[in-house]
Amino acid sequence: MTAARGRPSLTERRRQETRLEIAETAAALFAHRGYEATTVEDIATAAGISLRTFYRYCAAKEDALTPVVTSGVGVLVRELATRPAEEPLTRAVRAAFDASVSARRLADPEQVRRLVRIMGTVPALRMRWLAAGRDMQDQLVPVLAARKGVPEDSMEVRLLACALLDAFGVALEHWAGQDEPGDLAELTLRAVRYLHLDAL
After folding, report:
1. How many Cβ atoms sit within 10 Å of the Cβ of residue 167?
2. What does each C-alpha distance from 115 to 34, 125, 193 come to in angstroms?
3. Looking at the domain 65-199, which fold is it?
4. How far is Cα 93 from Cα 48, in angstroms, rounded to an integer?
5. What is the 3-state secondary structure (H, E, C) of the chain?
6. I need a surface site. Which of 9, 20, 75, 161 has the fewest CB within 10 A?
7. In the chain, what are the domain boundaries?
8. Distance of alpha carbon 145 from its chain centroid, rounded?
9. Domain 9-61: which CATH number of 2.130.10.10, 3.40.50.300, 1.10.10.60, 3.50.80.10
10. Which tens digits make up the pLDDT trace of 16-26?
């Protein structure tokens, strides 16, 4: 049976689910033990998979987290694409962000904060985070271009996608670095409002 247009096949959905399970397992171990103290064998054992299966999905230990980094943005992009075209962009982003937050599966705030700090300080993970950010921009550009009625290859829409994702990243890192971090959603929306998206 073929997948409906725009919808991943059952096989691909299972692959995505396995990637996310590996990523969540790695995230929990990195947050609890630290990156250096966690081995690929530890991740595979905790995830209930073989080393061969791990390497089928991840080329190296530092690649394991990518689905955790990108999954929230994937939800945000899909939600933003469904918002009414006439809705102000700031309001549309807020609604899409709320939906992406509710869909996230790493529920322990302290674990998430530790993980973000690790990702910001381990060079190999930082590089993967930056690379994932470029891929996420590529997902976001078509949606923003359609809302703005401009070509996808315009400099302005790429700048807008970059600014929006950077706002998310800065808010996340700020939240993770605070002794009393407050509410991540409110911090992120404050960062988005600072961009004055509706004036762009």
Report:
1. 20
2. 9, 10, 26
3. Tetracycline Repressor; domain 2 (1.10.357)
4. 37
5. CCCCCCCCCHHHHHHHHHHHHHHHHHHHHHHHHCCCCCCHHHHHHHHCCCHHHHHHHCCCHHHCCHHHHHHHHHHHHHHHHHCCCCCCHHHHHHHHHHHHHHHCCCCCHHHHHHHHHHHHHCHHHHHHHHHHHHHHHHHHHHHHHHHHCCCCCCHHHHHHHHHHHHHHHHHHHHHHHCCCCCCHHHHHHHHHHHCCHHHC
6. 9
7. 9-61, 65-199
8. 20
9. 1.10.10.60
10. 889 989 988 99
Q: What is the pLDDT of residues 60-91, one digit of tens each?
A: 999 998 887 777 777 888 888 888 888 888 88
Report the predicted TM-score, pTM, of the whole model to 2 decimal places.
Answer: 0.76
